[in-house]
What does this fold into?
Amino acid sequence: MKIDVCRKLPEHIETLVYLQFEDEAIQVPEVLGEDLISAIENYCTLEEYTFNKGSIKSFTRMIRKKKQLIILCGAGKKAELDSYSLRNLLADCWREATRNKARQLYLMFGFVTKMPEPVLGHLLSESALLSAYKFNKYLSSDKTHELECIHLIYFAKTNRHLNRGILEGRIFAEATNLARDLVNEPANVINPESLADYARKAALQYGFSLEVHSIDKIKRLKMEALLAVGRGSKSEPKLIIMRYNGNPDKKNKLTALVGKGLTFDSGGYSLKPSNSMLNMKSDMGGAAAVIGAFSAIATLKLKVNVVGIIAAAENMIGSSAYRPGDVITSMSGKTIEVVNTDAEGRLTLIDAIHFALEKEKADKILDIATLTGAAVAALGKDYSAVLSNDDAWYAKLEAASTFCGEKIWRMPLHDPYKELIKSEIADLKNAGGPLAGCITAALFIQEFVQNKPWIHIDIAGGAMRDKVSGINSFGATGVGVRLLIALLKNME
Ligand code: BES
Ligand code: MG
Ligand code: ZN
It folds into this structure.
């Protein structure tokens, strides 16, 4: 899809998207021509349309024997419009245009935004490419219409800042769509081995390095927690390591991004009910976010040093699967009583984190995982839960969240709840019972971060959607990708 800025109106506008605040007098810019202005004004009067927030109306008319589609979009109250709502409003406009089979589209703001031009450009391309995404690989025929190009009508001395934003938004969106593709692939296609192959493809395409360890090496590393989780599956675990050194001078600062990579989570012998199992191909959403983020970080050539670790496995049942009651010795040496084989994600994560600290010498740890149903119950689908032992680093994540529009909410690392994961027979148990499940999962992981700066992001809620809305399509959302890129941008 082509996305650009134009300062001159064409002879004929096939489709116009027009945004306007509800608390500003309708002042259609003169450049649109009197004819078009009165068409918009007449429509608003006749339909009593006031540009209230999120309401989109469209109508067609004939001019000089050519059809013209006009889409009006309410931007709500001037003081209330932030980049989060603008991103979703624009996405809704693109969807409306697509529904109406538009191809060439012109966008005009009926107001002067205070948003910096790079941000505006970013929102424009990102919303367009994210909302146009569809996982149609397995449809024999997909007749979905696609927009060809979007031209922003904008008058500035130079288009440089807008164009820079448009390019950046494109990179953010393409990385997100890459993660969406990985999560949408069913578990009969993506297993630990093929996930590593997809990561290798991304590494070659975007320019970061990749190493994959197979089971023998994982055994030699004594990653017994990862091995236990993967033991019930014919597809053996893989340890995927991605490296990007954008700032070789600052060798002492290495950030590890650890993504949960369960290519399928049946629950194991603590088997999930069928309804809860249905979407569990998405249990590698954290891994996909890390792969997506790496592709963008390398494309943007960010001046950061990052290592990505994915301990990929499939949680299945069978005669060799791990059992409730088993005691395992993790790579760190800490022993764990498995009270629930469905609390498998944290087991793979702690071995990956220990590997990142001991073998890769990471200075900071960020893990991202579809980890708990409790996070979904607490925050729903729009917010990721975050827990962190480092306020300064968390502040950067918060700024990243505001910039990229991925919502986060901080939960407390409440020390007394450590009681809930104490075991009588081992150092820890892997599940803390029905209360505060999102927090106890994080407290469990905290035991393995060696007091290093650490951020834990639980994306269980937002990884999948069963409805199209705003920038999100049906299925995988690619949640986490934009947040990670924006965070690393703040760490340059
Ligand atoms: N992968 C699930 C968490 C999940 C739930 C992701 C819903 C996406 C949507 C995780 O492995 C899991 O099963 N967690 C258990 C932990 C419990 C047994 C302590 C849960 O949340 O029920
Ligand atoms: Mg599970
Ligand atoms: Zn899981």
Summary: The domain at 171-490 is CATH 3.40.630.10 (Aminopeptidase).
